[in-house]
């Protein structure tokens, strides 16, 4: 459900009832430590003091602790998502996870839901309760063929970034339905049923907002909502209400999941919701629009930005297969995205006019903190593509944003170590905004503060520029510069990842990239590929067309300018990584 609709207060009621009626260890998990210290713990303490039966069972004095309370001889522990010690400290019968969509995974441990499930493993009747306001996701509505009631359609996992919505889809999928005061048919209110006059101001929307019945289309005023809620019921797909009774089979699932629209919140009027939406849309700020959809209506938000469809990638398919080397390729680059348990790579061939072909792509699985995956990456770097004139990767860019280490040459920093050992590999780091699309900086100091004689170039790349380059190249026509090719057997996963982010302009004129799918690694790899090609000067290589032949053969003959040499000479190692303007010397 949305924000301020009683989620946390409901969890407090569960805690108090459990400790009083059937005492067993309870664990409450909040999103942050500050939330636990400043909001949750004071409210828990007030609840215990306000209930005489609980207060009489609560240990006081020196035995009392802020985050660990003893009630009726059992433990009530308060923890937060960023603390693996607190989450893994002891088992609990009842674990409550509040606002799971606001929780970040714990490095090396996993997500809060997985850790919470492990806490109840020793209790056969253990319970895990999860609540949250949803965040991002592409979800749609579909009408049930038998009942005619509209329900949320089960979306593909890759289209969802909201953890709580993924969990909702795994369960019974109950939705709060209310009867129309006019036709008496039950329907599920959601944002699409909220109405206000076209082109209305925020104040007009506040005064005239109505709820549209999904069955008869009648406008329902705000004053009818309380009576509708009093007769409201939860309906799962396949269920309906007959004479005030829910009929239909109960969905088979070991998880009961529920969704309630913010439209039926007793603490917000229809006019307030409509007004907040009108103001957010007028601001042009997608972050503000998302907040209204998430917190006000309890629905996932899909960013509307500049992202081509996945079909546009498949439309770039050429007449070659993965691993083959089409004619016209002069140099190969490779972009590598580093994750915790794998390396994602894409090898792209480049020709004149920045025409490019995807040659190879995939994953190298293994812990990136161990040398095994880096040994496989070395094999990729040394691999030869093509049969007649085989070539190797000329330049490899490795994203060092995930595992760079806080200081140069830390023992766990295998990215920089790999690049030092293989001078054709360069570390890169994406930036939201740069004065130039590509800016190298010299790293020549070790983590002990000593000068490194063979320093390394760290390439800062403008993420907005190069991601825009990739997605804009998808619509370039054949025969035009920057033509973007993929193999005929390209996978759907690659096509979807290349369009997994949308460029969302901000009111300030800047732009931000927002994930619309969970996997975006190949887009990062291809952005690095473009950056590496430009670092080699590929964008300056042009083939000038021949002059048309003269009508009079006695005049000057046809002139064809020879194409410039594509492969630039390699600079000596002594100054190759010392000069900040080494690409200009090429």
Give me the secondary-structure topology.
Layout: H1 7-21, E1 26-30, H2 33-50, H3 52-57, E2 68-71, E3 74-80, H4 84-87, E4 94-98, H5 112-119, E5 127-131, E6 141-143, E7 150-152, H6 163-170, E8 174-179, E9 186-187, E10 194-195, H7 202-208, E11 210-212, E12 219-220, H8 225-230, E13 233-235, E14 240-242, E15 245-247, E16 258-259, H9 270-283, H10 286-297, H11 310-314, E17 331-338, E18 342-350, E19 356-365, H12 371-382, E20 393-399, H13 414-421, E21 425-431, E22 438-445, E23 451-462, H14 463-473, E24 484-485, H15 492-498, E25 501-505, E26 511-515, H16 521-535, H17 573-576, H18 582-585
Parallel strand pairs: 1-3, 1-4, 4-5, 8-16, 17-20, 19-24, 20-21, 21-23
Antiparallel strand pairs: 2-3, 6-7, 8-9, 8-13, 10-11, 11-12, 14-15, 17-18, 18-19, 22-23, 25-26
CATH architecture of the largest domain: 2-Layer Sandwich
Largest sheet: 8 strands, mixed
The count of domains is 3
**Count of alpha and pi helical runs:** 18
Give the low-confidence spans. 404-412, 544-586
Give an account of the 3D structure.
This protein is 28% helix and 22% strand. With 586 residues, it is of the alpha/beta class. The protein folds into 3 domains: 7-131, Rossmann fold (3-Layer(aba) Sandwich); 141-297, no CATH class; 310-539, Nucleotidyltransferase, domain 5, CATH 3.30.420. The strands form 7 sheets. The chain has an 8-stranded mixed sheet with strand order 22-23-21-20-17-18-19-24. Strand 22 and strand 23 (451-462) form a beta hairpin. The radius of gyration is 30 Å and the shape is globular. The model is unreliable at 404-412 and 544-586 (pLDDT under 50).
């Amino acid at each position: 459900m949305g924000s301020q609709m009683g989620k946390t207060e409901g969890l407090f009621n569960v805690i108090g009832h459990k400790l009083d009626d059937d005492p067993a260890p309870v664990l409450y998990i909040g999103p942050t430590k500050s939330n636990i210290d400043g909001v949750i713990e004071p409210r828990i303490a007030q609840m215990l003091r306000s209930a005489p039966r609980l207060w009489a069972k609560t240990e006081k004095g020196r035995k009392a602790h802020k985050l660990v309370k003893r009630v009726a001889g059992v433990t009530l522990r308060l923890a937060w998502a960023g603390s693996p010690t607190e989450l893994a400290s002891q088992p609990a019968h009842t674990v409550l996870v509040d606002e799971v969509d606001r929780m970040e995974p714990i490095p090396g441990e996993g997500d809060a839901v997985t850790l919470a499930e492990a806490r109840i493993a020793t209790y056969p009747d253990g319970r895990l309760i999860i609540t949250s306001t949803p965040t991002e996701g592409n979800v749609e509505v579909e009408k049930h063929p038998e009942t005619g009631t509209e329900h949320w359609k089960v979306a593909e996992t890759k289209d969802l970034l909201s953890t709580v919505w993924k969990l909702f889809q795994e369960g019974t999928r109950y939705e709060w339905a209310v009867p129309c005061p006019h036709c008496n048919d039950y329907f599920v209110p959601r944002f699409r049923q909220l109405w206000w006059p076209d082109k209305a101001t925020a104040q007009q929307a506040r005064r005239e907002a109505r709820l549209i019945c999904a069955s008869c289309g009648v406008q329902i005023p705000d004053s009818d909502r309380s009576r509708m809620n009093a007769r409201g019921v939860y309906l799962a797909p396949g269920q309906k209400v007959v004479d005030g009774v829910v009929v239909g089979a109960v969905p088979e699932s070991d998880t009961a999941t529920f969704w309630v629209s913010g439209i039926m919140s007793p603490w917000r009027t229809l006019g307030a919701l409509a007004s907040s939406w009108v103001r957010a849309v007028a601001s042009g700020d997608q972050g503000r629009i998302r907040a209204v959809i998430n917190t006000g209506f309890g629905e996932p938000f899909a960013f509307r930005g500049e992202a081509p469809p996945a079909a546009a990638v498949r439309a770039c398919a050429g007449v070659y297969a993965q691993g083959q080397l089409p004619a016209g390729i002069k140099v190969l680059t490779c972009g590598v995205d580093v994750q915790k348990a794998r390396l994602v790579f894409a090898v792209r061939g480049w020709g004149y006019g920045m025409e490019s072909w995807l040659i190879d792509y995939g994953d190298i699985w293994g812990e990136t903190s161990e040398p095994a995956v880096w040994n496989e990456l070395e094999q990729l770097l040394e691999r030869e593509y093509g049969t007649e004139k085989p070539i190797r990767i000329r330049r490899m860019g490795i994203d060092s944003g995930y595992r760079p280490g806080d200081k140069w040459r830390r023992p766990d920093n295998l990215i920089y170590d790999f690049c030092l050992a293989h001078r054709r590999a360069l570390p890169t780091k994406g930036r939201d905004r740069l004065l130039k699309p590509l800016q190298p900086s010299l790293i020549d100091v070790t983590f002990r503060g000593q000068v490194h004689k063979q320093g390394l170039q760290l390439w800062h790349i403008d993420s907005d520029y190069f991601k825009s380059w990739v997605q804009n190249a998808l619509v370039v026509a054949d025969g035009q510069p920057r033509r973007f090719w993929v193999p005929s057997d390209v996978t759907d996963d690659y096509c979807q990842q290349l369009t997994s982010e949308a460029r969302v302009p901000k009111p300030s004129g800047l732009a931000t990239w927002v994930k619309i799918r969970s996997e975006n690694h190949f887009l990062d790899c291809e952005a690095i590929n473009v950056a590496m090609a430009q670092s080699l000067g590929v964008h300056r290589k042009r083939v000038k067309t021949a002059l048309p032949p003269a009508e009079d053969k006695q005049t000057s003959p046809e002139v064809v300018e020879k194409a410039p040499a594509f492969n630039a000479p390699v600079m000596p190692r002594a100054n190759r990584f010392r000069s900040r303007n080494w690409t200009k010397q090429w």
